[in-house]
Amino acid sequence: MSMIKREVRVHQVPDQVNATAERTFLQELQKCSESERPRFVLDCSRVREMDIATIHLLLSSLEEVMKCNGDVRLASLHPAAEEMLSLAGVNRLFEIYPTVDGAVRSYHQRPTSIAPMDFGTEQFDRSIELAA
After folding, report:
1. How many of the other CB atoms lie within 10 Å of CB of 30?
2. What tens digit of pLDDT does each residue of 87-114 get?
3. DSSP secondary structure of 77-130
4. Among residues 20, 44, 45, 41, which one has the least CA distance to residue 32?
5. Contact 77, 54 (CB under 8 A)
6. Which helix (H) or strand (E) element contains residue 74?
7. Any domain includes 32
8. What is the rounded radius of gyration, in angstroms, for the C-alpha atoms of the chain?
9. Is residue 3 part of a domain?
10. Most exposed: 5, 23, 55, 58, by fewest CB within 10 Å?
11. How far apart are CA 125 and CA 123, in angstroms?
């Protein structure tokens, strides 16, 4: 069995986001999202402070890529920017990595598999009794 490694694209998030910057960024992202299940890493190293416009850009990017069954990961967030994402509750929507390289590598790592649980009927019946 052979596996085809799909490309991971890295995009630099602008340090200042306005309507024009957001439109340009999303247009570039859409062009690259035409492949099946696109994978992106958004390099946030230039973003010192995470304002509403930047959070909106990240969420819009995620939405666009998810339309194609893709994935977006964030990398190189400054502590203040990461804290703002956390306060806004947005951090739960993204996998966040300390470096761009780490985020790119994460796409190529195999997920750890979880062995299926073997419930015998006795264990299953007992777990129902305990839950009741």
Report:
1. 15
2. 999 999 999 999 999 999 999 886 655 4
3. --HHHHHHHHHHT-GGGSEEESSHHHHHHHHHSPPPP-PPP---HHHHHHHHHH
4. 41
5. no
6. strand 71-75
7. yes
8. 19
9. no
10. 5
11. 6
| Reported pTM | 0.77
* 20-36 pLDDT, tens digit each: 999 999 998 888 777 77
Which conformational region is residue 94 in: left (phi greater than 0), alpha (psi within -120 to 50 degrees), or beta? beta
Tokens of 117: 């649980």
Q: What is the pLDDT of residues 59-81, one digit of tens each?
A: 999 999 999 899 999 999 999 99
Number of independent structural domains in the chain: 1
Scan for tokens 């200042």, then name that residue. 16
CATH number of domain containing 78:
3.30.750.24
Instruction: Name the phi and psi angles at 46, rounded to 5.
Output: -85, -15
Residue 121 is assigned to a structural domain of this protein: no
DSSP letter, residue 92:
G
Tokens of 11: 């995009």
Distance from C-alpha of 68 to C-alpha of 18, rounded to nearest angstrom: 25
Q: At 109, which amino acid appears?
A: Q
CA distance 113 to 67: 26
